């Protein structure tokens, strides 16, 4: 949804309000797009997004045109490969997607407002009727799924999935509901304005992170080295608090200098940061580990540190080290191991 905000804003400004929306509510097997991926079509034929990178988008547009003509409130196309479908629309990757097609309604304007304000928000959609429920970060609720008991059950599931990300179809006695949590944009905090930090900051931006680079060495922390990125000058403990580093944060420590490493790692370990990566050889890792143990941290606490940082991709250049670090942080955020996909699992 976030990827479509610019198109939606432009269409609204142009007075285009007759919009159909297609949402992937479930994937099976190998698919190029995850659940929650959306595609939009205006009454004037403008298209934004994709549910398949092309192979079934044409058929999805036909379903959205059906909605725009007012011939149905919802449509539920299923795209996959079977013997019967072998000569029809299907996913080239061999997987299958379950799609919900409906008309864009005003509650989506509220969802967009929350996303643009970078506030986490929960959203639920019935898959058998055009009904929606939205939960704001302050706990207020808009809309209804048409049944008080269903609303209560879905709100409980939204709370359980908070702060996300989450996009999954849930089954209830009243029917199926697609439940989503849109989290705040993740934050990548890079301690140490090194030659690895520069490409890591740019890659982080491309991956959707809010990026902050911090260093107490002003010579390294020059704006031209980190264009478009927030920088904070000072010692870690002076420019951040542990409370500021929430569960959506990934912290990477690149100093390779104990007088900076220890304060940065101490700050991260006292926070709720989901990922703590530390650059250094195994000897450096062991040395900092011993210092942190002596400072009162337990082995269980120190197990949160990913070090030596990054996935093993074999590259030693700064950009490739940055790539390996970001890949590991993304894998942790999505609760993945970061291992190679099997041949069968590749699209």
Question: Keywords, please?
Answer:
347 residues; alpha/beta; six-stranded antiparallel beta sheet; 17 strands; 30% helix
Taken as a percent bin, the fraction of beta residues is 15-25%
Rg for CA atoms = 23 Å
Helical segment count = 10
Q: Describe the biggest sheet?
A: 6 strands, antiparallel
Terminal Cα span: 22 Å
The helical percent reads 25-40%
- How many E-type strands? 17
Describe the 3D structure.
The two termini are 22 Å apart. The chain is of the alpha/beta class.
Topology:
Layout: H1 5-13, E1 19-28, E2 38-42, E3 47-49, H2 57-68, E4 74-75, E5 78-79, E6 96-103, H3 107-116, E7 121-126, E8 132-135, E9 141-144, H4 148-161, E10 166-172, E11 175-182, E12 187-191, H5 197-206, E13 210-215, E14 230-233, H6 236-239, E15 249-253, H7 258-269, E16 275-278, H8 282-294, H9 299-302, E17 305-306, H10 318-333
Parallel strand pairs: 12-13, 12-15, 13-14, 15-16, 16-17
Antiparallel strand pairs: 1-2, 1-6, 2-3, 4-6, 5-6, 7-8, 7-11, 8-9, 10-11
Helix pairs in contact: 5-10
